[in-house]
Amino acid sequence: MLNIENARKLKEAGLQWQPRQGDLFMAPDRGMDDQIFVINDMAAIIETLRGAPAVTFHGTPEWALDTLYLGETLWLPHESQLRDLLQAALAATPADVFDLLYADGVYTCRFEWAGAAVALRAAVAVDAYAAALLHLCDKGWRFPA
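and the corresponding structure tokens:
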């Protein structure tokens, strides 16, 4: 899962969220920073029924937090979502290199940008992609609206 600090930086850099099924998000600064939410039509909950584990299905749960405006949330994009954004950004350049390597417990995202070789490292792949996108933003690239 994406590091929350990187999620904040991506949002500040202009990453727009168009929510869809399976997206992860949090509601920061509401005393629930350790809670991760998932966009889903129906809640499936693991419970114990008659001593055995069971998956139970529920409609929309009602609780104290009824509404959150999108601007009050923090999207935690999946690895594939950030990879797709990076691929789209790099497609506009004549870069011949783009890959993600894993060696010695570290992921390295490598690509060419403006004629320069770039290599950004992180403990998890999704954070390596986030670092790559943030690097592009530092170089003047902007997220699509």
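(Above: one complete record from the training split.) The first helix runs from residue 4 to 12.
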